[in-house]
């Protein structure tokens, strides 16, 4: 429908060029906006309006998006997943009341940093598993049983679950793990000893296993 | 078919500046911060809005406009979107010193003088100039906010810009 296309065009169109007479009005706006958005995030959190808070941290496996709800960490995402796309998906599945709020994820950021510095072997964070349901959730619950520096095959993980022959489903559960790193799906490898796929990429999986083996 | 609702952070990042311009124009630079906060908190509280919002920027500007009206009602006065120094004082002050003159020539205009000139416009023209030329909304959206036709919005914005230029020119003469 034509009207539908029109309204979409309005939303994405280039800004109307500003007449020179008005240019002085927008000078110095950026400083005011930084202050205002900071105050706004604080007020939004205090009023219980921030359903999802997020921040991005640097790591040896690239920029990591950390997102949390009031229940705990809900999503860890690699850059290759597309952080904007991940946030869009959180908006659709959890709530669009999503704000950048670094302070709310201080604990998660600190533990991730400690992990990469080899000063932490297990994560001690409240986790929100709402993005994994059913069998996938069951698989994730077993992954922390694989100790730091160890690996297990997809088949071995399946053997721990209520469906011991669901090897492929274990692979799917790992591939869709909403909390990689923190829930260690990188420790699940193929029965032949090859590493297998990883949602952070094969290089990231190799790096994490080497890090934990002390050979990085 | 409903369109996907973006993370609210995207709205703050993409439209925060637009809303600030509108707030400053409608309630003055000093009061604008409070109205901006109230507007975004109200928007977040209502988010995602019921009904079919086609343009989030226009939706935010409409909320800011309402908050600005509330603000004026609470203060018991009519909109006077000028700097606290008053239009005349601000206008001549900016052109007083040699450096100021150079700077204001370089920057095109001094902000206080422009706010003051904007405040002299009739409300409809002022709002049309602010929504279209300063906030960058399309005439269709401006018409939605002003409750008139797209043609009327376009005319109000164009008349408003002409008056604004005349006021600024007059201002320069008065101060020289």
TrEMBL record, chain B:
Gene3D superfamilies: 1.10.1740.10, Winged helix-like DNA-binding domain superfamily/Winged helix DNA-binding domain. Residues 11-77 form the RNA polymerase sigma-70 region domain. CDD domains: Sigma70_r4 (cd06171). InterPro entries: RNA_pol_sigma-70-like, RNA_pol_sigma-70_dom, RNA_pol_sigma70_r2, RNA_pol_sigma70_r4_t2, RNA_pol_sigma_r2, RNA_pol_sigma_r3/r4-like, WH-like_DNA-bd_sf. Pfam families: Sigma70_r2, Sigma70_r4_2. Coiled coil: none annotated. One of its GO terms (biological process) is DNA-templated transcription initiation. SUPFAM superfamilies: Sigma2 domain of RNA polymerase sigma factors (SSF88946), Sigma3 and sigma4 domains of RNA polymerase sigma factors (SSF88659). GO terms for molecular function: DNA binding; sigma factor activity. Keywords: DNA-binding, Sigma factor, Transcription, Transcription regulation. Residues 113-164 form the RNA polymerase sigma factor 70 region 4 type domain. Belongs to the sigma-70 factor family. ECF subfamily. PANTHER family: RNA POLYMERASE ECF-TYPE SIGMA FACTO (PTHR43133), RNA POLYMERASE SIGMA FACTOR HI_1459-RELATED (PTHR43133:SF8). NCBIfam families: sigma70-ECF. This is Uncharacterized protein. It comes from Arthrobacter alpinus.
């Amino acid at each position: 429908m034509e009207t539908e296309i029109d309204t979409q065009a309005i939303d994405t169109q280039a800004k109307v060029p500003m007449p020179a007479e008005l240019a002085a009005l927008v000078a110095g706006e950026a400083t005011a906006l930084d202050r205002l958005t900071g105050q706004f995030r604080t007020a939004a959190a205090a009023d219980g309006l921030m359903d999802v808070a997020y921040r991005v941290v640097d790591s040896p496996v690239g920029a990591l998006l950390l997102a949390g709800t009031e229940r705990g960490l809900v999503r860890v995402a690699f850059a290759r997943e597309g952080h904007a796309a991940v946030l869009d998906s959180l908006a659709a599945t959890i709530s669009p009341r999503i704000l950048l709020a670094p302070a709310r994820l201080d604990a998660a950021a600190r533990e991730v940093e400690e992990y990469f510095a080899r000063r932490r072997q297990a994560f001690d964070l409240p986790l929100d598993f709402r993005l994994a349901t059913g069998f996938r959730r069951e698989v994730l619950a077993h992954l922390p049983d694989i100790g730091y520096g160890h690996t297990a095959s997809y088949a071995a993980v399946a053997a721990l679950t209520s469906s011991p022959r669901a090897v492929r489903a274990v692979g799917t559960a790992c591939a869709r793990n909403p909390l990689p790193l923190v829930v260690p799906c990188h420790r699940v490898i193929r029965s032949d000893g090859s590493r297998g796929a990883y949602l952070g990429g094969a290089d990231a999986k190799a790096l994490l296993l080497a890090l934990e083996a002390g050979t990085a | 078919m409903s369109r996907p609702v973006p993370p609210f952070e995207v709205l703050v990042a993409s439209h925060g500046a637009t809303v600030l311009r509108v707030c400053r124009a409608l309630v003055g630079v000093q009061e604008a911060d409070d109205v901006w906060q109230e507007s975004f908190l109200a928007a977040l509280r209502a988010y995602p809005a019921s009904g079919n919002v086609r343009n989030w920027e226009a939706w935010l500007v409409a909320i800011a406009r309402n908050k600005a009206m509330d603000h004026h009602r609470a203060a018991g006065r009519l909109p006077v979107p000028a700097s606290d120094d008053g239009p005349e004082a601000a206008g001549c002050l900016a052109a007083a010193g040699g450096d100021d003159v150079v700077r204001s020539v370089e920057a095109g205009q001094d902000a206080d003088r422009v706010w003051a000139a904007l405040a002299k416009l009739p409300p409809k023209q002022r709002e049309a100039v602010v929504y279209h030329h300063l906030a960058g909304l399309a005439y269709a959206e401006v018409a939605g906010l002003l409750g008139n036709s797209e043609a009327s919005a376009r005319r109000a914005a164009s008349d408003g810009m002409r008056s604004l230029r005349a006021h600024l020119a007059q201002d320069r003469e008065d101060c020289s």
